[in-house]
């Protein structure tokens, strides 16, 4: 949700900033801008719409400078416009901001009373004015920044430059992510690691309440009172190639097809199939204590993973599990006991509502476990324990490989707890682990249906509404399939637990309502078959997702997508996810929407 970048060093930086912004564009894409210091003046360009517009502007009117900041925006305050785009420039100061200033109205009125006129509707502009005012009062640049941020309430990651200090880039973090990239005589800042990968892998993940003063001569880290802080750098294991499209048309397509590999990366090294021993290097059970209940909290796709996790944990461990949306959890005043474990699932590790749930749990003294993809993210750092999904950078805004790797971790975690609680014998655990080792080749087989699924797009892309039906473990998969379709093809889609259909949604069914029916072999096969009959007898068009020998389903459905057979019902959920991702993808491609950057969305939702 907004991406910010910055550079100070010896290289001409406008194109570096632009390139870094391109790698962050998934965080917001309604407007963008860059500011540099040149000849003790702030020079800047801003443009509405995607970064390409800013790029064209920069090519026509190049900027020069070895220090600068940049921003790609997802609007919170003020519609997308050139005036509302960042950087916000006031006198000698330019600011880029990710977050929300909650008290900006009061601050704005206070500043306006001094006769100062605002040029935008954003909350960010107050920051630039405050710093400029403190500089006018005779404060040094860094002191003016500290004084200004002491007046702010809310969340902010900031990059700030000053025309009179052409070698000083200031970075500030409170509740919005910010990473410092460390080069040789040069420093970078960025909201997220992919922006830095081509330039450096040595980074410092800023903590809340820290301010960094960066110059070609070095980096000084202070708290908001100005006390000097020590810092330790980390190497990011990702390579720049992982954040490229590698010949695919879209990041989403690449990420769908990467799933066999990243799922293996996620479970590799975490168990011994011979002994059935599962090992999470990141934590051990002794630290969790008495485990009576699990609560899972997440948002969006990660929430759907949590719903599948509930089925897995309850069935394999016989532990009660609740699942909540981040945005609902804390305002519901949940009853939290100390002997429960709070699991937070987040690809980015920066989702504001999920982080708020984590903090709420920690306040009540409960242990927190994060399942997260991004190294050094807030969730990964602030949870008591973290398990990483090794999905690599997920750039497509619609989450795909993050979801299936989250399911992989939840599966392993369920087995881990089940073994510990002695709900499964060691031979049962071993069998479940063997099943996991087969999964990647099955996913390859599921992906081989891509062309057939693509061929369905022209037939179905004209419909305005879709229904997705699933039962049990496959109900959350239906929810996820419907979410994917809505997000990238803008087709309205709803998912129902198939047994609920008769309680209302059946009224919607007619020849204009394609219904995607998830019909896996197993306990509920006959039930879902009856649900399909109910749809067919009301002229609904059924796209059945089922296994090769399920002839009764195949004969009756309008179209059939076949998923390779696997006996393990938990892992089958992953296989059934693949065609739904592909269906949404090809429908969106056929409709010509912006697959990787769908309208109104941003990759990490860092505001409430
Ligand atoms: C959907 C999607 C979102 C995210 C949600 C949570 O495709 O990407 O629904 O799943 O915003 O994000 P994380 O997992 O980063 O907390």
Index terms:
608 residues; single chain; Rossmann fold; 36% helix; 3 domains; alpha/beta; binds fructose -6-phosphate; Glutamine Phosphoribosylpyrophosphate, subunit 1, domain 1
| Proportion in helices | 25-40%
Indicate the CATH architecture of the largest domain. Answer: 4-Layer Sandwich
CATH class of the largest domain: Alpha Beta
Query: Could you say which overall geometry the principal axes of the C-alpha atoms support?
Result: globular
Q: In what order do the strands lie side by side in the largest sheet? A: 3-2-4-1-10-9-11-14
Strand element count? 26
In short:
The protein has 608 residues and is of the alpha/beta class. The chain contains 18 helices and 26 strands. The relative contact order is 0.09.
Please characterize this protein's 3D structure.
This protein is 36% helix and 24% strand. The chain is an alpha/beta fold. It folds into three domains: 3-242, Glutamine Phosphoribosylpyrophosphate, subunit 1, domain 1, CATH 3.60.20.10; 248-437, Rossmann fold (3-Layer(aba) Sandwich), CATH 3.40.50.10490; 448-594, Rossmann fold (3-Layer(aba) Sandwich). The strands form five sheets. An eight-stranded antiparallel sheet has the order 3-2-4-1-10-9-11-14, covered by helices on one side. A six-stranded antiparallel sheet has the order 5-6-7-8-12-13. The longest helix is centred in the C-terminal third of the chain and has 23 residues, at 569-591. The model has no long low-confidence stretch (mean pLDDT 92). Fructose -6-phosphate binds next to helix 8 and helix 15.
């Amino acid at each position: 949700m907004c991406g910010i970048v910055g550079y100070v060093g010896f290289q001409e930086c406008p194109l570096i900033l632009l390139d870094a912004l391109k790698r962050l564009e998934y965080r917001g894409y309604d407007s963008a801008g860059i500011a540099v210091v040149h000849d003790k003046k702030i020079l800047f360009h801003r443009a509405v719409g995607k970064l390409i517009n800013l790029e064209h502007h920069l090519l026509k009117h190049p900027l020069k400078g070895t220090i600068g900041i940049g921003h790609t925006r997802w609007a919170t305050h003020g519609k997308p416009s050139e005036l509302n785009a960042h950087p916000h420039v006031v006198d000698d100061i330019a600011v880029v901001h990710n977050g929300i200033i909650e008290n900006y109205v009061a601050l704005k009125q206070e500043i306006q009373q001094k006769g100062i006129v605002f040029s935008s509707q954003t909350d960010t502009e107050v920051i630039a004015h405050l710093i400029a005012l403190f500089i006018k009062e005779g404060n040094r640049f860094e002191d003016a920044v500290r004084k200004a941020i002491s007046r702010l309430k809310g969340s902010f990651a900031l990059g700030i430059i000053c025309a009179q200090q052409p070698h000083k880039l200031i970075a500030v973090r409170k509740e919005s992510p910010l990473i410092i990239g460390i080069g040789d005589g040069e420093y970078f800042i960025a909201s997220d690691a992919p922006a830095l990968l081509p330039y450096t892998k040595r980074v410092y993940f800023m903590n809340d309440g820290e301010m960094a003063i960066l110059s070609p001569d070095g980096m000084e880290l202070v708290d908001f009172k100005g006390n000097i802080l020590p810092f330790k750098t980390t190497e990011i294991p990702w390579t720049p190639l992982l954040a490229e499209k590698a010949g695919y048309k879209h990041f989403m397509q690449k990420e769908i097809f990467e799933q066999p590999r990243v799922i293996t990366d996620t479970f590799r090294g975490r168990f011994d199939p011979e002994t059935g021993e599962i090992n999470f290097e990141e934590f051990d059970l002794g630290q969790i204590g008495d485990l009576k209940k699990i609560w899972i909290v997440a948002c969006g796709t990660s929430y759907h993973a949590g719903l599948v996790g509930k089925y897995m944990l309850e069935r394999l461990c016989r532990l009660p599990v609740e699942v909540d949306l981040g945005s609902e959890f804390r305002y519901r005043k949940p009853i939290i006991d100390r002997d429960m474990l709070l699991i937070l699932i987040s690809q980015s590790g920066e989702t504001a509502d999920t982080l708020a749930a984590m903090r709420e749990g920690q306040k009540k003294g409960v242990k927190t476990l994060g399942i997260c993809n991004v190294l050094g993210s807030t969730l990964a750092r602030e949870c008591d324990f973290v398990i990483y999904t090794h999905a690599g950078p997920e750039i497509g805004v619609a989450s795909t490989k993050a979801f299936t790797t989250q399911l992989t971790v939840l599966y392993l975690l369920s087995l881990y707890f089940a073994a510990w609680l002695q709900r499964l014998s060691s031979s049962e655990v071993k069998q479940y682990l063997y099943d996991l080792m087969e999964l990647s080749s099955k996913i390859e087989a599921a992906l081989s249906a891509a062309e057939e699924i693509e061929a369905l797009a022209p037939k179905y892309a004209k419909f305005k509404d879709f229904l997705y039906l699933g039962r049990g473990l496959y109900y959350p998969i239906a929810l996820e399939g419907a979410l994917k379709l809505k997000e990238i093809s803008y087709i309205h889609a709803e998912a129902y637990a198939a047994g609920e259909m008769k309680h209302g949604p059946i009224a919607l069914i007619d020849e204009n309502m394609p219904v995607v029916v998830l019909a896996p072999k197993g306990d509920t096969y006959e039930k879902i078959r009856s649900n399909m009959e109910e749809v067919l007898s009301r002229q609904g068009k059924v796209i059945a997702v089922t296994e090769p020998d399920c002839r009764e389903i195949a004969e009756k459905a309008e179209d059939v997508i076949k998923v390779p057979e696997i006996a393990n019902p938990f892992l089958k959920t992953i296989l059934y996810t693949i065609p739904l991702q592909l269906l949404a993808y090809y429908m969106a491609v056929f409709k010509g929407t912006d697959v990787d950057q769908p309208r109104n969305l941003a990759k990490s939702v860092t505001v409430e």
